[in-house]
Amino acid sequence: MSNDETIRDDHDSPWKEVLERYFPEFLSLLFRVIDWIVRLPASQELEFITSLRRLEEERQMPYITSIERIGIEQGIHQGEVGLLLRLIKTKFGTPHQGIVDQVQAADAETLQCWSERILSAETLAELFE
Question: What digits encode the pLDDT tens for the residues 99-111?
Fold first, then answer.
């Protein structure tokens, strides 16, 4: 290796460190900006999501922030609550506000238990015991 290459390697080293450290965050920000500006057609969005997931796995670089993850968890919880309330309404009739409040306040584990129990429960009391 020539002296020129050694100097160039030493000169490039700080840039490489910066890229390795901040590039994942930059890409995450870039994806958010692109997502905000451009709405892809459904077929291209699926292709983009597939490519993004592959990139995330290869680089071990999550695209979802902790705030987004909390939002996703809340969305899942709301979906589970909504589904259980629809099942209760279908099986036992429209639930009173106390039941609605109880279901909305339940944690994920309790909702899962009730969602399984509703298949065999014959009364609301049996569902929630």
Answer: 999 999 999 999 9
End-to-end, the C-alpha distance of the chain in Å comes to 76
Q: Which two tokens stand for residue 21?
A: 């450290």
DSSP string covering 34-80, please? Answer: HHHH----HHHHHHHHHHHHHHHHHHT--SS-HHHHHHHHHHHHHHH
pTM above 0.85, yes or no: no
- Render pLDDT for 38-67 as a digit per residue (tens, 0 to 9): 777 888 888 877 887 787 777 766 666 666
CA distance 51 to 46: 9
